[in-house]
Fold this sequence. Notes:
single chain; 0% strand; 81 residues; mainly alpha
Amino acid sequence: MKNLFSKGRIAIFWAIGNVLLIAKYFFDKWSIRCEPCSDLGDCPPCETEFMSNILIYLALFNIGMSLVWIITKRINRKTSG
């Protein structure tokens, strides 16, 4: 279990996860087709649901990875000493 959750692997998962979330955001941004605004009506939002919630997704992912890192650090400290 120590090898699976080593500090290096957690950092790699962390970086890959953040890059994938940001890449998905930019993919959605570049591929979305916005509808033109009508003069009398409201303009429809020119973003997907994922794009509007990207900060929440990034925060939850980073909080989760921080907890994994802290728990792993404590487990490794108990098993090594």
